[in-house]
Give the backbone structure.
Amino acid sequence: MKRGDPMEITSEQFQDAVAGGVYAFELIVTKYERLVYTVALRLLKNPEDAKDVTQETFIKVYKNLDKCKNEKMLKSWICVIANNTSIDSIRKQKKQSTISLDAQIETEAGQFIFEIPSDEKTPELKLIEDEGYGELKEAIDKLPLDYRNVLILRDIHSLSYLDVAEATNLNIGTVKSRLARARAMLRKLYIP
Amino acid sequence: VDCNKCLDNISLYIDGFLDEEDRVSFENHISSCEKCKKELHATEILVEYLKNIPLEELPEGLHANIMKGIEDARAMRRPSRFLYSRITTFAASLIIIAVVFGYLHLLPGVGEQAATESYTEPIMRMADTAGDGQIIPFAAGIALEDFDDDLIYPALEAAREYGLFYAVEFEDGLVAIFEFDIEEMGDLEIDFDEIVVIEPIEQVHYYEGEDDDCDCDEICEYDCDCGCQDDE
């Protein structure tokens, strides 16, 4: 199975979940929890933080499900919430962290951004990651956040440019240029 | 098209975002430049790889933790602290209804409207009005949202004097009635943005003749120093 896809959410199940039905909502959780965790882990680079963000994301989804137009929009809508919750978490961490100068990365515009040094990965995690994609994931993790963010939403989770623009609060032109730059950077970090 | 321009356009080409003229120029360059051709091919493979990255395995216990968070969030949306015993509460509600209807004749308009109803009719009506788990605030046995402008004021007066009451319909069709003391509302662990009760509370504030400079929250008249209580 390429991507976790337990079942389709029907219109009726979606409406049940919007009405607050926990059973129907659990179907949504089951379908999208790995997606949310993957977004969070790629952005935060720390399994414990990714777990917290995954939980927080689904609580936001539960409380605001009536704002999602229909079940067909669920994936991109949840993806956007996961993305934004992850970015918020990174911002909070940055405020709280003592930042090492060694962690600075210069962006295209010459500004310095600060990457949170990731925790050491356990041997088990490395083993799980190493199904042929471990090196690619490590290369993605090295991208500056602004570029990683766009690349994850568009190339890994297949959001449209419009959805990526909405999620990141960027215009489509900036999304295009950041994605092009992210792919070019990734090409230098990873050779297929 | 030079190599730099071509490399800049690889991403847009892959996603089909080059216009016709740029696309033709790009393809012409690619056909004659091995370096750019190789880069295009490698980037196409990379994008395909990215699309196929498997989702991460969910850590053990995370699904259960998510659902526990959802249950907690759900509990915050419902007055669960009042739901220890639905049967007991339902029995108590009959007493409350009887007490409230005892005051109906004191309310202009309300008494006339409700006096002909039996004690069970309001319960049935609220069962129809309330959805699953929805909360309908009512005063003097009538849902506040059912009052028109002429009747809202006496209804709110009744609510303030005798307390606010809520009808909750459960999945099995059982309707329970709860009483909230308006004075204690600030202590309730309920997000008032999430439930319909916010409307009557705002209306209470409106009828107090609020201060335009007051920027406190909707139930300010019971908590703040804005002077709205002094207007009474």
In short: Residues 34-51 of chain B form the longest helix (18 residues).
